[in-house]
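Hi W.,

Here's what went into the run:
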Amino acid sequence: MRALAMLKIGQTGWIQKERPACGVLDAVIKPLALAPCTSDIHTVYEGALGERQNLVLGHEAVGEIVEVGCGVMDFKVGDKVIVPAITPNWRTQAIQEGVPAQHSEGMLSGWKYSNIKDGVFSELFHVNDADMNLALIPDGMSLSQAVMLPDMVTTGFHGVELAQVDFGSTVVVIGIGPVGLMSVAGAVLRGAARLFAVGSRPLCAEVARKYGATDIINYKNGDIVDQILDATRGRGADHVIIAGGPSEVLEQAVRICKPGGVIGNVNYFGEGEFLRIPREAWGVGMGHKQINGGLTPGGRVRMERMAALVMNKRFDPGLLVTHTFQGFDHLEEGLALMHNKPADLIKPVVFV
Amino acid sequence: MRALAMLKIGQTGWIQKERPACGVLDAVIKPLALAPCTSDIHTVYEGALGERQNLVLGHEAVGEIVEVGCGVMDFKVGDKVIVPAITPNWRTQAIQEGVPAQHSEGMLSGWKYSNIKDGVFSELFHVNDADMNLALIPDGMSLSQAVMLPDMVTTGFHGVELAQVDFGSTVVVIGIGPVGLMSVAGAVLRGAARLFAVGSRPLCAEVARKYGATDIINYKNGDIVDQILDATRGRGADHVIIAGGPSEVLEQAVRICKPGGVIGNVNYFGEGEFLRIPREAWGVGMGHKQINGGLTPGGRVRMERMAALVMNKRFDPGLLVTHTFQGFDHLEEGLALMHNKPADLIKPVVFV
Amino acid sequence: MRALAMLKIGQTGWIQKERPACGVLDAVIKPLALAPCTSDIHTVYEGALGERQNLVLGHEAVGEIVEVGCGVMDFKVGDKVIVPAITPNWRTQAIQEGVPAQHSEGMLSGWKYSNIKDGVFSELFHVNDADMNLALIPDGMSLSQAVMLPDMVTTGFHGVELAQVDFGSTVVVIGIGPVGLMSVAGAVLRGAARLFAVGSRPLCAEVARKYGATDIINYKNGDIVDQILDATRGRGADHVIIAGGPSEVLEQAVRICKPGGVIGNVNYFGEGEFLRIPREAWGVGMGHKQINGGLTPGGRVRMERMAALVMNKRFDPGLLVTHTFQGFDHLEEGLALMHNKPADLIKPVVFV
Amino acid sequence: MRALAMLKIGQTGWIQKERPACGVLDAVIKPLALAPCTSDIHTVYEGALGERQNLVLGHEAVGEIVEVGCGVMDFKVGDKVIVPAITPNWRTQAIQEGVPAQHSEGMLSGWKYSNIKDGVFSELFHVNDADMNLALIPDGMSLSQAVMLPDMVTTGFHGVELAQVDFGSTVVVIGIGPVGLMSVAGAVLRGAARLFAVGSRPLCAEVARKYGATDIINYKNGDIVDQILDATRGRGADHVIIAGGPSEVLEQAVRICKPGGVIGNVNYFGEGEFLRIPREAWGVGMGHKQINGGLTPGGRVRMERMAALVMNKRFDPGLLVTHTFQGFDHLEEGLALMHNKPADLIKPVVFV
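Here's what came out:
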């Protein structure tokens, strides 16, 4: 079984892997469409997860079920399914006490693919607890749309949830790669009125406007904090969503946020021992600027709900897909695109 | 000063009133556009507030300021303003303990116009605490749009807030008069996926679809509870918004709502000593079907936030306005329309 | 295997049952202490669940494990455990969408004992998903204390959660049987200041004061609504917990609750087709008096958390136990006590 | 009029000030009891607010009203009142949009005494908006108890609110000076089970146990993070309250907090440009460890609610008062005590 793997830090390549075994509650999936993610780039080229050898990459997939365990109730061989990037164990004590399932067996434990087990860039891959972690692709949804759900859509929308956007509020989305663009779309679907999108790539800015951004803030035009404070007459934003950027974006978010406002982070901070909160802008600890950061929810119902938004035409994640490839062998090219980020790229998809 | 008043239960007419006095923090307004409301009909023809004599009607207005008290900081004569239907006293102990401002001096006390003081259907009318209760009409907003904000928009949206709509959820809006239509629009802007709108008037159904309803449920096709349970394969709705109807709609809402779901009511229940909760469908008291009912928020910031949604093109309340009149004298015709409810009516506006 | 059962409506008796089979994730328990509950009385003598034949009664137990399935990880034969009255299936889609586990397979589905399967008044009984639904009895906890946790404590405390008690608030607990007394104790542990306990039995009133009630309201002294409104100078209560009583208590709760207040119900309403909300006192639908009613949470962590409160001396549920019996055969006497409710009874316990 | 002031950074002294003018809604107060605070020490000796000259110190007072403005409704000359440290302007747009009143005119704007106006260490002092910011001292409350409410009690309790303590949870309070001790007392009154109090002073540890701490963690016995993780078998705490300490405590709090847990900060961080979040322990941005930091609520109702807890015997703030002085002239000694912090000090009170 062929798979595209991280051979070691800085190097990818095709390897042979054993076909995954299928547990009683599990399923084995043949991919139909795959999407490389910036996280894959972090993992391979920045060593963000540390050294790994022959780890299969990838966590964004839709596919067809080729095997199910005898305990699986709701899915059968041949079903076409959305596979969330986050596939928690849902039967834990942590969940009983209100810990998000993403952390049900320890912090970030729901993030399994290409982290604590092989990823989805493989001729076949495994999913734990199929009934709880798979969702059918609805009739009429394109594979391009569907493969945006496992990570881009749910992560972008989770930023909106963490930032607690409400009706008529002023919202800032920092970072308008594909996740940030989904935060823009999601913020509109939670009631944002004025919506600042912070980014510098012209294509992303254009798509951000399509998704509902009202103001594009480009760091090339000056400090983004100053620009947003000026535009809001010093008041700042009600809600700030961090969907990309280096460590410094957290500082900027605190400065942009009003007292009583909320900062939601879905960015994977990849570097440095510490993130920094600017003491005075945070009210010397007492400014009521809440800071939430979290891994996106996964699992079946999350995928079904995101899919329901698409099928009811609340937004179209398909606008994210700028590049497509036909054939599993093109995966490496798709990954290279995410590495090189040409100006016309938002997100590539490889149809298998 | 002429005004259109409830003379007694069942009878309206033009009367003369004294020009209102303007307190230190208050303002006097000359209306630019007025909208009659079903509540006015309840008040006059059903005696819903009890007997009243020579009470000026109306609580939906935009206007121009003709006088401000010496303590008013942010508004001046000549400003064109949105006047919320609900104008609370914001400086109370109730607010300190988290009671919604609508009830800051006792239940429903924020509802002043045509209830505990004269309404806005007058050549001039009074507003308490102008800085806290008025909002400028933004440049570019039509008077038709603006005059939908004081009640229709904010009330419809409050139903959505009370029902706690979230991403990808299944939502039911019971009643699709103008308030319910705004609940439909608002539910989309809080993340509703599938959205059932319950109503029988063809025009309202058509506009509900424009605002984002995906399914129209008409009682003429059978029991609405059965229809919705069938359509959701017995699961019911995550959120139910009651925006109109007789007492029975609360029972229906409980039956439609899933365990763990939320019912938000903004309907003014006008009749009977009791509303009824069906015991078994409510889980014999233990079904976790939360019931919230509340008067819409008022005040300046609420109006500004609703206006910001319109100006940022999140929705257009102007679709509600099916009939317009030019001239103060046409108010009585507008009111009669609300009384008679012809098939082509959603909401009339009278430009003064 | 002997068990105390409902033979039919109105009649109890000892029967023989088969030893329960133990599934892969399950356990079989031998009771150490059992407590009859008013719900058992409702079931048998009022037919509240409808006709049942030879249904084993009882849902309050602590016991010793005599068998575990091969998939059970954290428990072994010989462990002494608390068995919650509510034992949900925790691996469901409902939980993924935020439905309380109590309803994870349909409304009230977590309530299994003496409802959808045989109860615990048996020489041996079954528990589903032992790892998720059992908790060890902590060293040093008495069996009397422990057997109050499965229902009395968690249910009383859930009333407090549903009513959202906060610091320094005025709280009313309607009904001061054992559940209501735990609501009193729980309200203190959520910050209640003034705490009205509504009940007429002198012993219960005395224990309510021990748990922290500051005012006892007895219906024999006049209408309870009037008494509480008088005592609060017309203001009403911030939070009302319904822990017992006939249908009418919901009406009373609405009248007692301030606008912006919250009503939490854990009472099992046993009669009538409808519960009634007084229309005017509920602000004609718009008074922001939230109504929550729910089945108590169950499961392992809930029991562990309640036990942690006891072991850290936050309160002592042992005060509830007024009558004890030694020997399984005395179960029928215990049950009869709950039926007859002598003046000196709060809660009986049968040690096996 | 004599007052104890900060003359400049590092120097205090008695000065003469003009009697304060009393606005329409305001009051002038003669102190009955005053308490120096660590914040006063920060202000004078660490220049935490920057250079100030002849700024009257103090923000913890109870007193007697000597003058009221003509618009004051509920208070009169001679009333004995609690004066909160935080006295917001309650009639602002910020409050309408849900910003805590503490920030109603900009971040931290509710903190007026000894910050943006003269403090309370004066023969007479001013309070803005008396009806909204004063509370009567209840009959039977000692002045020692009462003067703990304006800051110590409300601030400690706010830490508990920010950390969202719930039933049966494991809570850590970092810092057990008087504010931290009130966080301990408050955490018990929100349902904490196991309660770690972090501090090294024996007297404070002893009082912490009286207020309900179950475990005392002393940094002299090793790293506090390690100690708490060991004691919880690596699980960490559900809720962490920061009530004192240098910048490093925020890092520690993040390490101690479980995924899905909440950190509440009421500590005034006095030094450095940045606070630091440990990146990996914060789940590289995605660990769902919420960080809330906020200035304590002020105003009348807050004082009334805190007072109601004391009067209903939920806790006794009087345990904090270790040193008392008779006479206004002893204020300087009291302040010196807070500066020198002898081993037997928790909090001094000066009776005037």
